Amino acid sequence: MRKPFQTELWLASTSPYRQQLLQKIGLLFQVATPNIDETPIAGEAPATLVQRLALAKASKVAGTLTNGLVIGSDQVAVFNGDILGKPHTAERAMAQLQAFSGNTVTFLTGLALVDAATGQSQLCCEPFHVHFRQLSHAEIANYVAIEQPLDCAGSFKSEGLGISLFAKLEGADPNSLIGLPLIRLLEMLRQHDINPLA
After folding, report:
1. Which of 133, 142, 182, 192 has the most crowded Cβ, counting Cβ within 10 A?
2. Rounded percentage of the chain residues whose pLDDT exceeds 70
3. Whole-model pTM above 0.85?
4. Catalytic site residue from 74, 82, 151, 193
C-alpha cells in the first residue's frame, strides 16, 4: 500500500477527467472548487488566459489553507485564432467538426502549482495539436450521435471514439489534451519532493 506524501496535495477543479488523471499516477489528493470568474479579458491571448485562470484557481484554494500544494489548470481549444466554446447542441457540434475537417485545432492547457504555505507558484502553458483527417458528413453525424460530445470544447472526446476523427496528434504530453499535463506537473511536484516513484 502506497503511503501518503507528507505534503497535502489539492486539485482546484471539479473536473472528473483531471481527477482520473491524478488517480492514474497514484497521487493522493483532495478536491476543492475554486469558484473564480473565468471571463476573458478583452484582447487577452489564449495562452495568457489559460495561465491566468490556472493560477487564479490554485491561488483561490491555496488562500483557504495554511499549507499544502494546490494544482490549478485551465484549457481552451483554438482554431484559426479563435477560442472554441462548447457546442451544447448536435447541430453546433457538427458545424465545428465540419470546419475542422482537414485542419488543425490547438489545445492550450495552463498549469499552476501553488505552495499554500509560502504563496510561491510555478506556471506553464502546454500546447497540443490535433490534426483532423478529411471527414465526410456521414462520419461527423455518426460520431456526434454516438458520443454526444456536446459539453466538450471542440466537439470531441479524444479519450473515446474521437480518436477516429484524427490524422495525427502532436505534442509533448497526450494527457494535456484531456486537461492536465502530467509530465509538467510531475516536474513541478518533484521540486517539492513529491514523486510517485520515490
Report:
1. 182
2. 97
3. yes
4. 74
